[in-house]
Amino acid sequence: MNVGTNRGDAHAFKLDTLLKLVDVKGADGKTTLLHFVVQEMIRTEGARLSNQNPNSSSTEDAKCRKLGLQVVSGLSSELTNVKKAAAMDSDVLSSDVSKLSKGLGNISEVVRLNETLGLDDSTKKFSESMNRFMRMAEEDMIRIQALESVALSLVKEITEYFHGNSAKEEAHPFRIFLVVRDFVTTLDRVCKEVGMINERTIISSAHKFPVPVNPMLQAAFIGSQERQQYSSSDDESPSH
Questions:
Q1: I need a labelling partner for 47 at 20 to 30 A (CA). Which of 12, 89, 167, 171 fits?
Q2: What CA–CA distance (Å, rounded) separates 133 from 81?
Q3: What separation in angstroms does the CA of 45 have from each of 39, 61, 63, 99?
Q4: pLDDT tens string 77-100
């Protein structure tokens, strides 16, 4: 990118650069670079799906663009889990896991104290039940901690892939999800606007180039009008 300039040889861009696409506006002050990108995407995606002919009619082109718009606007539903992740706080998540682990330790201590008081029938049953629960809970706790570690590692990996240095993002490890969520929200809005623009263009084209009337029906209609005019002129002529 930008080869030959003082900013040339750029090999990539940060993901949050996508948010700046709406900051670059056209002469009308409304159309943004993202509008242009979406239009190009729906055109290419629609052509790919419909195997569009280069010499296709305006009607076929409109159908092609609708197909492409469905693909582009479908990105939001594909990234539903990203939106959910963006609503999470990594500090709260880690704190909750830590509290669960500490809570299990407290339960284990209560069971041990209870056993030291003597093992009558009720105490024995309680101890057995709680020990079974503790074994299952501890296994679940180990699994949860492992999943937390893997999840944070994957987030760090994907952050490094898109941002280059995850160390700068450590204060907000889930920030990358916020970026994607905000971009998808903006993309949804632009897709709706582009869809409305394309609909207005189709309607405008239909008014400029009306569908021609069937020549046979048109001829029959004109012939009927001529016969009616000839008949009425006969009726109005003076009699001798």
A1: 12
A2: 32
A3: 10, 12, 12, 49
A4: 899 899 888 888 888 888 999 999
